[in-house]
Amino acid sequence: MRRLLNVRPRGGLGVLLGLVPLLAVALVYLMASQARHADNPRDKLLPTPTAMVEAVVMMASVDPLTGDAPLVVDTLASLRRIGVALGISTATALVLGLGLGLLPLLRAKFGPLVAAIAVVPPIAVLPILFIVFGLGETAKIALIVIGITPVMVRDLAAQVGAIPEEQLVKAQTLGASTWQLALRVALPQAMPRLIDSLRLSLCPAWVYLISAEAIAADVGLGYRIFLVRRYLSMDIILPYVVWISILAVLMDWALRSFSRRVYPWAHPVRGR
């Protein structure tokens, strides 16, 4: 008897199975929206697809007063902030993760500090960041960096620390220095894990970004969502939420594709 564990959807079947839940959610929403508008045509809680399309077109059109398209400006502002923060976090995690994972002395000295920072709720320090850095871009970027970097550091350090001792001993037998061990033994094995860690950090990074933009910003996707909520503009809020999700999925897909192309050995195909 064929076990469920060994059933692997291939090609179009896998895509179809992935689309079914999304289509089901969309169908349920359409039915609920139609039912609410049948009772109250002016209902704002569940806007119709037509209303959301009109709102998106309006937000993507150039405002004659400012000369900018709000959706474009908000998207560029948010992507710039999260891009800078992810870059800083990745570079920091790479350096500290390699050091903590490879050097017992460094791990003993700074490991507890990293572990302590990792359990601090980042949102709780947001007021401190605003006091220290002001209400500009620095505080928003710092919140994301503080929120995701410690977790990435610990994850990468664990990966490096799990490298078989035999590899390190053989490399030292051949005369490898500490730098050579880090760059030629640990780094190639750590990079795929670093990319995976970055992918897992995308969701909390977006959460911290939206939170910071909602509190103190004059442009950005989070700022726009919390600006229009006072008018109950669900026809704008829902498309913005979907757009944020699409951006996050595209970022995740890009990172996954990059990792598979550059480090194919780290992505074995199961079942072959």
Verbal overview:
- The protein has helices at 12-39, 49-60, 70-102, 104-118, 126-133, 137-161, 165-173, 178-215, 221-228, 234-262.
- It has 272 residues and is mainly alpha-helical.
- It has a single domain, classed as MetI-like (MetI-like fold, Orthogonal Bundle).
- The chain is globular, with a radius of gyration of 23 Å.
- The mean pLDDT is 89.
Key structural traits:
272 residues, mainly alpha, MetI-like fold, 10 helices
Layout of helices and strands:
Elements: H1 12-39, H2 49-60, H3 70-102, H4 104-118, H5 126-133, H6 137-161, H7 165-173, H8 178-215, H9 221-228, H10 234-262
Helix pairs in contact: 2-10, 3-4, 3-6, 3-8, 3-9, 4-6, 5-6, 6-8, 8-9, 8-10, 9-10
Low-confidence stretches: none
Quaternary state of this entry equals single chain
> How many β-strand runs?
0
Indicate the percent of residues in helices. over 70%
The topology string of helices and strands comes to HHHHHHHHHH
Offer a quick outline of the entry.
With 272 residues, the protein is mainly α.
